[in-house]
Protein backbone atom coordinates (compact mmCIF):
# COMPACT_ATOMS: atom_id res chain seq x y z
CA UNK A 1 0.00 0.00 0.00
CA UNK A 2 1.21 3.49 -0.77
CA UNK A 3 2.06 5.93 1.86
CA UNK A 4 -0.66 8.30 2.87
CA UNK A 5 0.71 11.81 3.16
CA UNK A 6 -0.32 13.82 6.12
CA UNK A 7 -1.88 17.26 5.85
CA UNK A 8 1.36 18.94 6.89
CA UNK A 9 3.35 17.20 4.16
CA UNK A 10 0.75 18.13 1.56
CA UNK A 11 0.78 21.78 2.59
CA UNK A 12 4.61 21.83 2.57
CA UNK A 13 4.73 20.41 -0.95
CA UNK A 14 2.23 22.99 -2.18
CA UNK A 15 4.16 25.86 -0.60
CA UNK A 16 7.41 24.51 -2.11
CA UNK A 17 5.85 24.47 -5.59
CA UNK A 18 4.50 27.96 -5.05
CA UNK A 19 7.93 29.21 -4.00
CA UNK A 20 9.47 27.61 -7.10
CA UNK A 21 6.91 29.35 -9.30
CA UNK A 22 7.59 32.71 -7.64
CA UNK A 23 11.33 32.19 -8.03
CA UNK A 24 10.98 31.33 -11.73
CA UNK A 25 8.71 34.31 -12.35
CA UNK A 26 11.11 36.65 -10.57
CA UNK A 27 14.03 35.27 -12.60
CA UNK A 28 12.07 35.77 -15.81
CA UNK A 29 11.26 39.32 -14.75
CA UNK A 30 14.92 40.01 -14.04
CA UNK A 31 15.92 38.57 -17.43
CA UNK A 32 13.30 40.69 -19.19
CA UNK A 33 14.48 43.78 -17.35
CA UNK A 34 18.08 42.99 -18.28
CA UNK A 35 17.11 42.62 -21.93
CA UNK A 36 15.18 45.89 -21.88
CA UNK A 37 18.06 47.70 -20.19
CA UNK A 38 20.54 46.27 -22.70
CA UNK A 39 18.25 47.21 -25.57
CA UNK A 40 17.82 50.74 -24.23
CA UNK A 41 21.54 51.18 -23.61
CA UNK A 42 22.35 49.82 -27.06
CA UNK A 43 19.88 52.15 -28.73
CA UNK A 44 21.16 55.07 -26.65
CA UNK A 45 24.74 54.26 -27.63
CA UNK A 46 23.81 53.97 -31.30
CA UNK A 47 21.94 57.27 -31.19
CA UNK A 48 24.85 58.99 -29.44
CA UNK A 49 27.32 57.53 -31.95
CA UNK A 50 25.15 58.73 -34.81
CA UNK A 51 24.99 62.21 -33.26
CA UNK A 52 28.77 62.27 -32.84
CA UNK A 53 29.24 61.09 -36.44
CA UNK A 54 26.87 63.78 -37.70
CA UNK A 55 28.58 66.47 -35.63
CA UNK A 56 32.06 65.41 -36.75
CA UNK A 57 30.85 65.24 -40.33
CA UNK A 58 29.42 68.75 -40.14
CA UNK A 59 32.60 70.00 -38.49
CA UNK A 60 34.73 68.43 -41.22
CA UNK A 61 32.52 69.89 -43.95
CA UNK A 62 32.67 73.34 -42.32
CA UNK A 63 36.45 73.07 -41.97
CA UNK A 64 36.88 72.06 -45.61
CA UNK A 65 34.56 74.88 -46.67
CA UNK A 66 36.55 77.37 -44.57
CA UNK A 67 39.82 76.15 -46.08
CA UNK A 68 38.43 76.63 -49.58
CA UNK A 69 37.24 80.13 -48.71
CA UNK A 70 40.60 80.96 -47.16
CA UNK A 71 42.53 79.84 -50.22
CA UNK A 72 40.18 81.87 -52.39
CA UNK A 73 40.71 84.92 -50.16
CA UNK A 74 44.50 84.54 -50.39
CA UNK A 75 44.41 84.31 -54.19
CA UNK A 76 42.09 87.32 -54.45
CA UNK A 77 44.36 89.27 -52.10
CA UNK A 78 47.41 88.56 -54.26
CA UNK A 79 45.52 89.74 -57.35
CA UNK A 80 44.35 92.91 -55.59
CA UNK A 81 47.85 93.76 -54.36
CA UNK A 82 49.22 93.13 -57.85
CA UNK A 83 46.63 95.46 -59.39
CA UNK A 84 47.28 98.18 -56.78
CA UNK A 85 51.04 97.92 -57.40
CA UNK A 86 50.52 98.35 -61.14
CA UNK A 87 48.19 101.29 -60.47
CA UNK A 88 50.93 103.02 -58.46
CA UNK A 89 53.52 102.58 -61.20
CA UNK A 90 54.88 99.04 -61.06
CA UNK A 91 55.65 97.43 -64.44
CA UNK A 92 52.82 95.29 -65.73
CA UNK A 93 54.70 92.61 -67.70
CA UNK A 94 58.42 93.46 -67.55
CA UNK A 95 59.12 92.30 -63.99
CA UNK A 96 55.83 90.59 -63.25
CA UNK A 97 57.56 87.96 -61.11
CA UNK A 98 58.92 90.65 -58.77
CA UNK A 99 55.52 92.31 -58.53
CA UNK A 100 53.97 88.93 -57.82
CA UNK A 101 56.54 88.32 -55.10
CA UNK A 102 55.67 91.66 -53.48
CA UNK A 103 51.95 90.85 -53.68
CA UNK A 104 52.48 87.47 -52.02
CA UNK A 105 54.58 89.08 -49.27
CA UNK A 106 51.92 91.69 -48.54
CA UNK A 107 49.24 89.00 -48.47
CA UNK A 108 51.20 86.94 -45.95
CA UNK A 109 51.85 89.97 -43.74
CA UNK A 110 48.32 91.40 -43.77
CA UNK A 111 45.64 88.96 -44.97
CA UNK A 112 47.01 85.67 -43.60
CA UNK A 113 46.69 86.74 -39.92
CA UNK A 114 43.13 87.90 -40.60
CA UNK A 115 42.26 84.46 -41.95
CA UNK A 116 43.52 82.86 -38.75
CA UNK A 117 41.40 85.29 -36.75
CA UNK A 118 38.42 84.35 -38.92
CA UNK A 119 39.03 80.67 -38.05
CA UNK A 120 39.14 81.63 -34.37
CA UNK A 121 35.90 83.65 -34.23
CA UNK A 122 34.09 81.84 -37.10
CA UNK A 123 32.52 85.10 -38.21
CA UNK A 124 33.35 87.49 -41.03
CA UNK A 125 32.02 90.61 -39.30
CA UNK A 126 35.03 91.12 -36.94
CA UNK A 127 37.40 90.79 -39.91
CA UNK A 128 35.51 93.45 -41.85
CA UNK A 129 35.51 95.59 -38.71
CA UNK A 130 39.30 95.37 -38.58
CA UNK A 131 39.61 96.57 -42.17
CA UNK A 132 37.02 99.34 -41.84
CA UNK A 133 38.66 101.07 -38.84
CA UNK A 134 35.53 101.02 -36.71
CA UNK A 135 35.15 100.33 -32.99
CA UNK A 136 36.92 97.15 -31.88
CA UNK A 137 35.56 94.61 -29.41
CA UNK A 138 38.91 93.42 -28.04
CA UNK A 139 42.64 94.06 -28.12
CA UNK A 140 43.23 91.39 -30.77
CA UNK A 141 41.17 93.30 -33.32
CA UNK A 142 42.98 96.53 -32.45
CA UNK A 143 46.37 94.84 -32.81
CA UNK A 144 45.45 93.27 -36.15
CA UNK A 145 44.26 96.62 -37.45
CA UNK A 146 47.52 98.29 -36.39
CA UNK A 147 49.51 95.47 -38.00
CA UNK A 148 47.73 95.85 -41.36
CA UNK A 149 48.01 99.64 -41.24
CA UNK A 150 51.70 99.76 -40.35
CA UNK A 151 52.59 97.14 -42.96
CA UNK A 152 50.86 99.09 -45.74
CA UNK A 153 52.43 102.38 -44.56
CA UNK A 154 55.86 100.73 -44.47
CA UNK A 155 55.47 99.50 -48.04
CA UNK A 156 54.32 102.95 -49.17
CA UNK A 157 57.24 104.72 -47.47
CA UNK A 158 59.61 102.14 -48.95
CA UNK A 159 58.62 103.26 -52.45
CA UNK A 160 60.11 106.76 -52.02
CA UNK A 161 63.76 105.85 -52.79
CA UNK A 162 62.88 104.05 -56.05
CA UNK A 163 62.63 107.13 -58.37
CA UNK A 164 65.70 108.85 -56.90
CA UNK A 165 68.78 109.06 -59.15
CA UNK A 166 71.15 107.36 -56.73
CA UNK A 167 71.71 104.42 -59.07
CA UNK A 168 71.91 101.94 -56.24
CA UNK A 169 71.11 98.25 -56.78
CA UNK A 170 68.75 98.21 -53.80
CA UNK A 171 66.57 100.88 -55.46
CA UNK A 172 65.21 98.30 -57.88
CA UNK A 173 61.52 97.50 -57.58
CA UNK A 174 60.26 96.07 -55.21
CA UNK A 175 63.22 95.73 -52.82
CA UNK A 176 62.64 98.89 -50.79
CA UNK A 177 58.88 98.27 -50.64
CA UNK A 178 59.43 94.76 -49.30
CA UNK A 179 61.92 96.09 -46.73
CA UNK A 180 59.51 98.85 -45.68
CA UNK A 181 56.59 96.44 -45.31
CA UNK A 182 58.68 93.99 -43.29
CA UNK A 183 60.03 96.77 -41.05
CA UNK A 184 56.57 98.21 -40.46
CA UNK A 185 55.21 94.78 -39.58
CA UNK A 186 58.14 94.03 -37.27
CA UNK A 187 57.98 97.40 -35.50
CA UNK A 188 54.27 97.09 -34.74
CA UNK A 189 54.79 93.55 -33.44
CA UNK A 190 57.52 94.84 -31.11
CA UNK A 191 55.29 97.66 -29.89
CA UNK A 192 52.33 95.34 -29.35
CA UNK A 193 54.51 92.80 -27.53
CA UNK A 194 55.98 95.51 -25.32
CA UNK A 195 52.50 96.78 -24.52
CA UNK A 196 51.29 93.30 -23.60
CA UNK A 197 54.30 92.56 -21.39
CA UNK A 198 53.99 95.95 -19.71
CA UNK A 199 50.32 95.26 -18.98
CA UNK A 200 51.14 91.86 -17.49
CA UNK A 201 53.94 93.35 -15.38
CA UNK A 202 51.64 96.12 -14.14
CA UNK A 203 48.89 93.64 -13.24
CA UNK A 204 51.36 91.49 -11.32
CA UNK A 205 52.57 94.50 -9.38
CA UNK A 206 48.99 95.41 -8.52
CA UNK A 207 48.27 91.86 -7.33
CA UNK A 208 51.44 91.79 -5.24
CA UNK A 209 50.63 95.19 -3.73
CA UNK A 210 47.06 94.14 -2.86
CA UNK A 211 48.33 90.98 -1.18
CA UNK A 212 50.88 92.90 0.85
CA UNK A 213 48.24 95.35 2.02
UniProtKB/TrEMBL annotation:
Topological type in the membrane: Multi-pass membrane protein
A GO biological-process term: GPI anchor biosynthetic process
UniProt superkingdom: Eukaryota
Pathway it works in: Glycolipid biosynthesis; glycosylphosphatidylinositol-anchor biosynthesis
Transmembrane segments: 71-93, 99-121, 142-161, 173-201
InterPro entries, alphabetized: GPI_biosynthesis_protein_Pig-F
GO cellular component, one term: endoplasmic reticulum membrane
Keywords attached to this entry: Endoplasmic reticulum, GPI-anchor biosynthesis, Membrane, Transmembrane, Transmembrane helix
Any single Pfam family the record assigns to this protein: PIG-F
Main location: endoplasmic reticulum
Places the protein is found: Endoplasmic reticulum membrane
Name under which the protein is recorded: Phosphatidylinositol-glycan biosynthesis class F protein
Amino acid sequence: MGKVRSGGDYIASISHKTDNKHTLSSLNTVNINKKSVLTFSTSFTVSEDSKIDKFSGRKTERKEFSIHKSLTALIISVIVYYAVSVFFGAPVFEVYSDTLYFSVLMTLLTVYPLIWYYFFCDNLLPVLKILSNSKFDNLTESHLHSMVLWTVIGAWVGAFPIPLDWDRPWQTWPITCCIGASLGNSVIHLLIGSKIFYGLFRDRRKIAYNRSV
